[in-house]
Amino acid sequence: MMCAVLLLSPLACTPKPPKQEVKNTLTVVISADPVNLDANHSDSQTHYQVTRQIYETLFVYDQDYNIAPWLCESYNYEDDVTIILKLRKGVKFHNGDELKASDVMFTFQRIVDDHLSGLIEVATLDLPKCEIIDTHTLKLVTKGPVATQIPLLENPAASIISERAYRAANGDWLKGAAVGTGPFQFVSYAAGDQIVMKAFKDYWRPGEPGVENLVMRFVRDSSSRSIEAETAGAADIVYDIGSKDLARIRAAKGVSIIDDLGTNTSYLLFNTARAPLNNIKVREAIWYGVDARTAVNLAYGDFGAFAEAWVCPGIGGYDPTQKDKYLIERDVAKAKTLLAQAGFPNGFSLKIAVPNNNQERMDMAEVFQAQLAEIGIDVKVDTMESSAWISHILAGKHDLTIYGMSASDFEADRALAQYMPLHVNHNLCAYKNKEFQDLFTTAVVTLDKDARFQMYRDASNLLLRDFVTLPLWHKALNAAVKDHVTGFRITRSYEHHYLQYVKFRPN
Predict the structure, then answer these.
(1) Are 390 and 44 within 8 A, CB to CB?
(2) How far apart (Å, rounded) are the C-alpha atoms in residues 393 and 400?
(3) CA triplet 163, 164, 169: central angle to 5 degrees?
(4) Beta strands in 254-399 (DSSP E)
(5) CA-CA distance, 49 to 60, in Å (whole number)?
(6) Average pLDDT, stretch 55-82?
(7) Is residue 2 very low, low, confident or very high in pLDDT (cuts 50, 70, 90)?
(8) Degrees (nearest 5) of the Cα angle 456, 457, 458?
(9) Average pLDDT, the chain
(10) In terms of C-beta density within 10 A (0-12 exposed, 13-18 middle, 19 or more buried), how is residue 351 classed?
(11) Quick one: CA dihedral 313, 356, 498, 86, positive or negative?
(12) Predicted pLDDT at 9
C-alpha cells in the first residue's frame, strides 16, 4: 500500500492543464457604416456586406458562378414572360414565422412603391400581373422577355424581408423590422462603430453558420484596416485592404490575402444637369485635360486593372474597341481650345465629391485636381463621410464624382440601368438621351444573346461619346484572413461575401 501511495502521489500532485477557451465570435472589419439595416435600400456594397448576413435572396451564384435556387427551391418558365417559382418549405424568419409567398410579394411591392434601390432588380416585373398561387408558390410575370431576371434576383437589394415583422415595427429597422431568414440575426447596432449579430439557431441549412457570434466593425481609414489585419488578436477578417498596403500584408505572418476580380468598374462621372457640365464641349475638355491612367496607377498600382472599356472583360456587353475610339490621350492644348470654344477661355471652378473611406478615390481626385489646374479649371476636392457622400450625389448636388457601377448579373444591363430616368442613381449624371433609353429598353427584353450584347455595347458607347462616364478602374476584391479562420469566400457579383461558411480552425 505504501508503495502504491508513493507511485501515485506524483500524479495526484500534477496540476491539470488549463482549459482552453473556445473562440466563438468572428470579428470582421469593413470600410463603412451601413447606416441602416434596410434590406432593399442602399447602393453601397458595404451596406449589403452587413445586411446579407441577416436577409437572403431567392437565388445565389454557386462556386462556379452558375445561378442556383436558394430561398427558392425550384422554378420554371411557362412562357417567355411567366415564371412559376416554388419556395423552400420550412424556412423560418428570425421571429419564428415561416417564409411565405406573401413575404416575397410584399418585399417586391415595397421596393416599387417606395422607389428603393432594389428597384433595378424588380423593375422588369409586371407586379399587377404577378400572383400568389399558394403559400409557397408564386407566379412572376415580366414586362416582356427578360433574359437576366433570375440573376437580378441574386442581388442583395432583392433580399426578402418579413412582412409581419416590418408592419409590427412600423418599418423601424432597429426596433423589430430587421428580421430575415439569414444565418445571423440582429442583436445591436452602434452607429459609427459596429453591429453585433448571433447565429440563428433555426437556420434552414444544417451546420451553418460556423460561428456563434458575428461582430462587424466599421473602420473607415485604410491604414487602420491594415493594422487590424497585421495585428494578432485583432480582427479575424478585414475587407478592402488598401492597394498600397497589400504587399506588406501579404508578407505578414499569420494572415493571408484572398482576392478575385469583381464586376465593378469605377468612373469619373459628370453631372450633366449642372452648369457648365451641361455643355458637351466642357465635358470633352475635361476628358482631354485628365490623364486617367496616371491617376489609376498612382492610386492602385497593379491591383485590379486600368479600365480600357466601359465594363470589365468577361461581362456581357464588353467592347474592346472602346479604348481606341473614346479613351483618348491627354492633350492640354486641345483641352484649353475646347474650353475657349465653350465660352470659358479663363476656366472656371467646380467640385469633385469623394468618400473619405476610400483612399484610392481621394488620391485620384487629387490627381485630377492638379491636372485640371493646368487647363484653367479650379477643382475643389469635396471629401465626405461615406453616407453623407451617397446622399449628396444621389440628390444631384455634385459636379463630378468617382463612382463604381456593378454588373452583378455578369451582363452590362445592371450597370446601364443606373442611367435610366426611373433609377435612384439617375441624378449621378442626369443623362437624358432617348436613343440610349430606347437601346436599353429594347436590350433587356431581347432573348438573343448576341443581339442583346450588341445593344449593350451601343448604349455604353453613347455614354462615352457624350463624355458622361469616363471609365477608370476595373475593381479587384480582397480580404485579409487570419490563419485561424477557414471557409471564407469572395463573392464577386456584388461583394456581399457570405460569412455563414466561415469557421475557426481547431487548435
Answers:
(1) yes
(2) 9
(3) 100
(4) 255-270, 305-306, 348-355, 377-384
(5) 15
(6) 96
(7) very low
(8) 90
(9) 95
(10) middle
(11) negative
(12) 45
Q: Who has greater pLDDT, 15 or 427? A: 427
Residues 6+ apart with CB under 8 A from 340: none
Rg for the chain, CA atoms, rounded: 25
3-state class of 341 per DSSP? helix
pLDDT the model gives residue 15: 55
CA 186, chain centre distance (Å): 21
Q: Return the axis-axis angle of helices 449-465 and 434-443, rounded to nearest 10°.
A: 160
Indicate the pTM of the whole model. Answer: 0.91
3-state secondary structure 42-75: CCCHHHHHHHCCCCECCEEECCCCCEEECCEEEE
Digit-coded pLDDT (tens) for 159-218: 999 999 999 999 999 999 999 999 999 999 999 999 999 999 999 999 999 999 999 999
What does the CA dihedral 222, 226, 231, 232 come to, rounded to 10 degrees? 110
**Alpha-carbon distances of 167 from 103, 107, 110, rounded to whole Å:** 11, 12, 11
Grid coordinates standing for 431? 443623362
Cell triple for residue 482? 487570419
Task: Round to whole Å and give the CA distance between 56 and 279.
Answer: 44
Q: At what angle do helices 359-373 and 280-289 cross, to 10 degrees?
A: 100
Half-sphere exposure of 3 (CA within 13 A, CB side): 0
Q: Which residues of 271-288 are buried (b: 16+ CB within 10 A; e: fewer)?
A: bbebebbebbbbbbbbbb
Separation of first and last alpha carbons in the chain? 41
For residue 337, how many C-alpha atoms fall within 13 Å in the half-sphere facing its CB? 5
With beta carbons less than 8 A apart as the criterion, state whether 142 and 149 touch. yes
Kindly report the CA angle at 226 between 223 and 232, in degrees rounded to 5? 135
Q: Are strands 503-504 and 67-69 parallel, antiparallel or unpaired?
A: unpaired
- Cell 498612382 -> residue: 298
Cell numbers linked to 330: 491627354
* pLDDT recorded at residue 255: 97
For residues 214 and 500, the answer to whether their CB atoms sit within 8 Å is no
Distance CA 144, CA 182 (A): 32
The three cell numbers of residue 307 are 479600365
* pLDDT for residue 104 is more than 60: yes
Beta strands at 184-190 and 348-355: parallel, antiparallel or unpaired: unpaired
Provide the pLDDT for residue 43: 86
Give the cell for residue 196.
Answer: 453585433
Position 344 pLDDT exceeds 80? yes
Nearest Cα neighbor of 232 from 497, 18, 19, 27 is 27
Residue 54 main-chain phi, psi, to 5 deg: -95, -40
Cell of 251: 508578407
* Beta carbons of 487 and 501 less than 8 angstroms apart: yes
Question: How far is C-alpha 399 from the geometric centre of its chain's CA atoms?
Answer: 23
Question: What domains does the chain contain, in order, with CATH numbers?
Answer: 23-254+483-507 (3.40.190.10), 262-475 (3.10.105.10)
- 271 neighbors 400 (Cβ within 8 angstroms): yes
